[in-house]
Amino acid sequence: MSVLLATGANRGLGLEFVRQYSADGWEVLATSRQPEQSNELKQHAAQHPTVVVHRLDVTDEESVQDLADKLDGKPIDVLLHSSGIYPREGQHIGEIDYDGWREALETNLFGVMRVTEALLENVMAGQRKQIAAISTSLSSLRGVQGGSVAQAGTSYQYRSSKTALNMALSILAKELEPRGSVSCCLTRAG
Ligand SMILES: NC(=O)c1ccc[n+]([C@@H]2O[C@H](COP(=O)([O-])OP(=O)(O)OC[C@H]3O[C@@H](n4cnc5c(N)ncnc54)[C@H](OP(=O)(O)O)[C@@H]3O)[C@@H](O)[C@H]2O)c1
Q: Which domain CATH number covers 95?
């Protein structure tokens, strides 16, 4: 049975991935930073024995290491990074919220890399060896030139964190190339 590990699996796109992969017969390691409050996910897991909920805060090194220890080398076919934040405050020059920006980078960029590093050998042990993260058209430099700031707002924190994610995943794909058929992809939800 193929194995998916999804971050940010308690709501939004992550929860939908859990539903769809488990419906397709996959074993799903569904992570949430607060499993005890993840009612929809817990309810789904209760009805689907192949879905197991794990605690994971991608910004917390200890939490990431705990999960890696718990999985103990278990093969993962697809590592799907669905966790992400979109800070709304301090989005204009003169009032930039640097704490929010740091948090966006911690979650959307470092979180993806930290979890990938910790679980890389699990992915290498899987059949498919796929690592996917969800980016956005708002991360595109060409989009900015084409008028996306006027349409979608400045969103410095979110947009730059996703632009950096695009670069990091692209570099990762190149760095992992010599290790065989591992594929890293960015998908765009909007
Ligand atoms: N929805 C869209 O239209 C869209 C478009 C483009 C890209 N994306 C990207 O797609 C991904 C999922 O989007 P979404 O709409 O499903 O977002 P969402 O509904 O806001 O869900 C975000 C998920 O990330 C989790 N999360 C946040 N910080 C975390 C942390 N430190 N550690 C672990 N999990 C954390 C949240 O957990 P909590 O419940 O604990 O907060 C939640 O499960 C995000 O990366 C987003 O940027 C979405």
A: 3.40.50.720
